[in-house]
Amino acid sequence: MTEPDCLFCRIAAGKLDADIVFQNDAVVAFRDINAQAPTHVLIIPRKHVATINDLDSADAPIVGALFLAAQDIAEAAGISDVGYRVVMNCNEGAGQSVFHIHLHMLGGRKLGWPPG
Ligand code: 5GP
Ligand code: ZN
């Protein structure tokens, strides 16, 4: 299920260019165009889901696939042990600007906590 007007659906379908670092049947991962860390990758499901609030129980394997992709990407980037962060914003108040769920994966520098 894709939305023709959705930026990330278009990237997943190969209709828009992106620096893809990982993909499988369930997810696509590509470098954020406005990177906030040396490694800043967005991991998205191929299925269009607008926000976390729109997930249903049948989507549980998709959510798991996002985290398993993060694990692979961290390993390939050599940051598994030093550490990295995954975060997903839900709705404008939390900073969501693209309404196709995406797991931010950040690493390669010291990350502060709490986030802003
Ligand atoms: P959000 O603010 O929704 O949590 O995250 C959206 C992210 O998508 C932002 O970090 C932004 O830099 C990134 N982004 C927006 N448009 C594009 C694009 O066309 N290509 C890529 N690679 N990243 C994008
Ligand atoms: Zn989409």
Main sheet attributes: strand count, strand direction, barrel closure: 5 strands, antiparallel
**Can you give the mean pLDDT?**
97
Strand order of the largest sheet: 1-2-3-5-4
Radius of gyration: 14 Å
Could you tell me which ligands this complex binds, including any ions or cofactors? guanosine-5'-monophosphate, zinc ion
The percent range for strand residues is: 15-25%
Helix content: 10-25%
- Count of helical stretches: 2
Q: What is the SS-derived class?
A: alpha+beta
Shape-level CATH architecture: 2-Layer Sandwich
Q: Can you tell me the CATH topology?
A: HIT family, subunit A
Number of domains: 1
Whole-Å distance between the termini?
Answer: 33 Å
